[in-house]
Design a protein that fits this description.
Blueprint (H helix, E strand, L loop, with lengths): L5 H25 L9 H19 L5 H24 L1 H7 L4 E5 L2 E2 L1 H6 L4 H10 L8 E6 L5 E5 L27
Helix pairs in contact: 1-2, 1-3, 2-3, 3-4
Length: 180
């Protein structure tokens, strides 16, 4: 069968449209942070929002008001977590990962690469895509909290101040060594 009855199709159209508009309104209210590049915590919230929306759309046992409340609740909880993480280092550490140094002064950090499951081929690809032809020209490669790989050339490393939040135990060079 393609469908059970016309009422089911009509419910999906009406409830789906209302839930979609509600979700847009809630996401607009929550601000840019909700839709920014995703770290693991943001990804989980996004999947939960999508799952909730799908349940509201397809389950006849979930009323629109219940689904709208669930969407709003998830968004408010995400806002509280984001707000708390900007005010508490402990909360920030609990819900986000730390950036990881993968290459330092042209030398790949093999243990960090293995721990983060990043291959040398991926490291080389990241360096190439940043327009750099050799690892010796790279001051640092960092796996960011959102999974993006940042490449900092030796000529652009500056004081190295942006490396201050790297995971403890990762090799760091005093700022004066980053100066070109």
């Amino acid at each position: 069968m393609f469908f059970d009855d016309v009422n089911g199709l009509l419910r999906v159209v009406l409830v789906g449209t209302a839930a979609y508009l509600w979700l847009i309104l809630v996401l607009r209210f929550s601000g840019k942070r909700t839709l920014a590049q995703l770290n693991a915590f943001d990804f989980i919230v996004t999947v939960a929002l999508g799952s909730t929306l799908a349940t509201v759309l397809l389950s006849k046992t979930v009323a629109l008001a219940e689904g709208a409340l669930a969407l709003a609740l998830l968004t408010v909880l995400q806002l509280i977590a984001a707000w708390s993480s900007t005010r508490s280092r402990a909360v920030q550490r609990a819900i986000t990962t730390s950036p990881t140094l993968l290459l330092h002064q042209g030398q790949p950090l093999r243990q960090a690469l293995a721990d983060q499951r990043v291959s040398m081929d991926s490291l080389h690809a990241a360096v190439r895509s940043s327009g750099i032809g050799g690892l010796e020209l790279v001051a640092a490669v960092v796996l960011e909290t959102n999974g993006k790989i940042s490449v900092i050339s030796t000529s652009q490393a500056g004081s190295g101040a942006t490396f201050s939040d790297l995971r403890p135990g990762a090799p760091r060079t005093p700022p004066h060594e980053y100066r070109p």
